[in-house]
């Protein structure tokens, strides 16, 4: 299978988040500034979603906030998929899960994102004007002690139009241990995962993405405690 997502750009976000500003990959300063401005707003939305998730789990709304204070691995990625006359022969982006807590995805009006169901089929996610698509990542799978799952998804190639997407991924600090929250562990719902260091997990995953392996080398489920 050939993969054709071409432009894979990590945009500057909030300065000095991971110790540097990655403006060298982004061309003009105006573009960089727009990315930073967008990132700040997307970050607010991501935190709002984390609040709703916390409340849905019976936790205080701000329960996830401390995980993102100071240095963290939040970034914004722009994907570009060029039109392809035979989209069925190629894939834009292979099936994967995000490592993040939540990812806020914005796209132009061309569809392409597909979510994998439990049965293994793919459902098309049609872009709605003025809306965002939210993907849950592996960190949320573990923090929620399995109450929330991370979604497997892929992007298929467009046939006759250009497609852009922007994935804002909210991740904790690299040296943070991601483990199930104590409040979500009890006799009826025992601890489901051991845990992992977020930075190490992210780096291992990055190698897979680059090699475009069929099966991701590292997943939260590899840290599952056998029942
Ligand atoms: O292009 C899309 O809609 C999805 C991109 C994506 O899944 C990602 O960048 O992690
Ligand atoms: Fe993704």
Automatic annotation (TrEMBL):
Domain Fe2OG dioxygenase: 70-172
Molecular function terms from GO: metal ion binding; oxidoreductase activity
Keywords: Iron, Metal-binding, Oxidoreductase
Pfam families attached to this UniProt entry: 2OG-FeII_Oxy
Entry-linked InterPro entries: IPNS-like_FE2OG_OXY, IPNS-like_sf, Oxoglu/Fe-dep_dioxygenase_dom, Plant_2OG-oxidoreductases
Keyword Metal-binding attached: yes
Top-rank lineage group of the source organism: Eukaryota
Similarity remark: Belongs to the iron/ascorbate-dependent oxidoreductase family.
Protein name: Fe2OG dioxygenase domain-containing protein
